[in-house]
């Protein structure tokens, strides 16, 4: 199931669909019904049900857009609920819309570690950092700016440092003084301006 090519109306039409989300960085998956999908980040708000619970959803879970490798539809024709999801229906979609505006649901979503319940916080951050790294490299190559890469170990983890002249761009490759450093303020400003928006 590919959601990347869908526009906002197409994403809206998926509300209530029972899906299985497979994670990118680790083995693992989560099942539930689509509550909504952010058209920009492709993050999914998933309604998770207890088995045979007619009053659900039990909780809402945020699945960050960069954390999953694939989405599969569950068998929505099943006559009874399976773990995490329930068959799609107009009644269900109405309940999901109500959940989106429920203060209780959003208190719950904030206290839930969402995808991070399954220890995916660090993995999700690594995936996001790798994506930023690749975008920076692509931008430098496209602009024909000379650069080199160096390996650096920090807190037991090996990361690549992108060196552009007097400027060093370090993991997690964000547009911050901690990630983009140089003693040459002019060069630093030029690179910061060049990369503006690339690392978001």
From TrEMBL:
GO CC terms, sorted: nucleus; SMN complex
Residues of the AD domain: 85-200
Domain of life, per lineage: Eukaryota
Protein name per Swiss-Prot or TrEMBL: AD domain-containing protein
Organism for this UniProt entry: Ditylenchus destructor
Any single biological process term in GO: spliceosomal snRNP assembly
């Amino acid at each position: 199931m590919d959601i990347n090519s869908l526009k906002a109306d197409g994403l809206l039409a998926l509300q209530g669909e029972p899906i299985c989300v497979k994670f990118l960085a680790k083995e693992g998956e989560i099942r539930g019904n689509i509550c909504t999908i952010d058209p920009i980040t492709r993050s999914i708000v998933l309604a998770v049900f207890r088995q045979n619970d007619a009053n659900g959803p039990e909780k809402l879970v945020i699945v960050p857009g960069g954390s999953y490798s694939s989405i599969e539809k569950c068998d929505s024709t099943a006559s009874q609920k399976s773990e995490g999801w329930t068959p799609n229906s107009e009644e269900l979609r109405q309940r999901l819309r109500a959940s989106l505006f429920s203060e209780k649901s959003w208190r719950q979503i904030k206290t839930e570690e969402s995808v991070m319940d399954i220890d995916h916080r660090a993995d999700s951050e690594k995936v996001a950092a790798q994506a930023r790294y690749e975008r920076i490299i692509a931008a430098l190559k496209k602009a024909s700016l000379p650069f080199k890469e160096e390996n650096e170990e920090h807190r037991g983890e090996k990361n690549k440092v992108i060196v552009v002249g007097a400027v060093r761009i370090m993991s997690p490759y964000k547009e911050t003084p901690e990630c983009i450093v140089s003693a040459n303020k002019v060069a630093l400003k030029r690179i910061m301006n060049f990369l503006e928006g690339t690392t978001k």
